[in-house]
Amino acid sequence: MADVIILGIETSCDETSAAVVKNGRVVLSNVISSQIDIHKKYGGVVPEIASRKHVELILPVIDQALKDAGQKLKDLDAIGVTYGPGLVGALLVGLCAAKAIAYSTGKDLIGVHHIEGHIAANYIEFSELEPPFICLVVSGGHSHIVLVEEYLKFKVLGQTRDDAAGEAFDKVARVIGLGYPGGPAIDHSAMSGDKNAIKFPRVYFNDSLDFSFSGIKTSVLNYVNTITQSGSKIKVDDVAASFQSAVVEVLVHNTIEAALANNLDKIVIAGGVAANSLLREEMKKGAMVRGIKVYYPNIRLCTDNAAMIASAAYFEYIKGNSSKMSLNAIPSLKLGE
Ligand code: KG4
Ligand code: ZN
Questions:
Q1: What is the CATH number of the domain that holds 81?
Q2: Is 166 exposed, middle or buried (CB count within 10 Å of its CB: 0-12, 13-18, 19+)?
Q3: Which of 226, 248, 321, 324 sits at 20 to 30 Å (Cα–Cα) from 184?
Q4: Count of domains for the chain
Q5: How far is CA 140 from CA 73, 84, 136, 161, 226, in A?
Q6: pLDDT tens digit string along 53-104?
Q7: Distances (CA, A) of 86 to 48, 93, 94, 273
Q8: 141 and 113 part of one domain
Q9: Distance between the two ends of the chain, CA-based, in angstroms?
């Protein structure tokens, strides 16, 4: 079969990204323009600013991705683009660019679910990886345990009932003065802290693999208030380590439960929080003793990027799936819709 070359476009949050991927697994280019420095001063992503920045950056980023890959628009087989979930104004920028390219070149347009993209990042990293497996998708917007039965067959086995894991990292980081984005800052700070210093709550549900992270966030807030009101200072590293350890413990426990319940010996981690060093280490430790192998992508492929979107689009393409020109952005798109 001839090579399939796909241009991926991702603008669901604060990264403007375009990438060219061959046969779903070989990255020819992956240009990521992060807006983190712009949003930092507001302590989080400001949707309107994100959309405007995407408008400025989208065409240069696409041009760069094609140039880096040594490809012309006419060489492409399809354009894959995130159409949800995400910030609606941000999604629309990438989607409009993708539609314009698909329309003017006559190439297929393939709408990609953002979580499907995060999962696919692992197909790039591990050329031999194939379903079935359990995937823990943890990012700023999602905390899902997904049974990936086939390339395009997903079953959500558990998800957060309130905050996403990454959201909890970001909010707690703000409370303890570590700034935005909180995940990498907490990860770093925790390395010098004592994870047993403070016992933050771990929430488990009976007969469900769902998560809840809003309680731990409130618990950290209460702890910080109590200490500061008594005139003392919190030990930032200890709070970071104790919080991180509590979140990681629940993520690892439920994911391994899901693998055991489904008789699967492969666990995949995806999404921005998959960059977390303790999560990677603890998942490996917990899985190894049960004969389960753990996969996670390198950090650049964990956080939002367009290569993962092009990879996911490839698996749709080879099944003959494509989207209509009427495809719209769906901010709260569910997996499997
Ligand atoms: O996947 P992503 O780039 O965007 C979304 O789809 O949300 O994930 C961003 C999230 C942020 O909440 C960020 O704090 C978190 O991933 N994150 C981390 C780490 N690196 C990024 N969380 C924990 N530890 C990290 N090392
Ligand atoms: Zn993401």
A1: 3.30.420.40
A2: buried
A3: 226
A4: 2
A5: 32, 14, 13, 14, 28
A6: 999 999 999 999 999 999 999 999 999 999 999 999 999 999 999 999 999 9
A7: 13, 12, 12, 17
A8: no
A9: 29
Dihedral sign from CA coordinates of 170, 171, 174, 176: negative
Amino acid at 313: A
Q: Which backbone phi and psi does 154 adopt, to 5 degrees?
A: -120, 140
Is the CB–ligand 1 distance for residue 117 below 6 Å?
no
- Tens of pLDDT, residues 15-40: 999 999 999 999 999 999 988 788 88
pLDDT value for 46: 85
- How far is Cα 82 from Cα 76, in angstroms, rounded to an integer? 17
pTM for the complete prediction?
A: 0.95
Same domain, 278 and 200: yes
Quote the percentage of the chain above a pLDDT of 70. Answer: 100
- Is residue 247 domain-shared with residue 266, that is, in the same domain? yes
In a domain, 331, yes or no: no
210 lines ligand 1 (CB under 6 A): no
Q: Which residue range forms the structural domain that includes residue 247?
A: 131-298
Residues in the chain: 337
Q: Give the residue, out of 163, 303, 332, with the most ligand 1 atoms within 8 A of its beta carbon, to mutate for a pocket test.
A: 303
In short, whether 273's Cβ falls inside 6 Å of ligand 1 is yes
Summarize pLDDT for 212-246 with one digit per residue, the tens.
999 999 999 999 999 999 999 999 999 999 999 99
Give residue 337's pLDDT. 58
Which ligand is in closest contact with the Cα of 301? 1
| CA angle, residues 137, 124, 316, in degrees to nearest 5 | 80
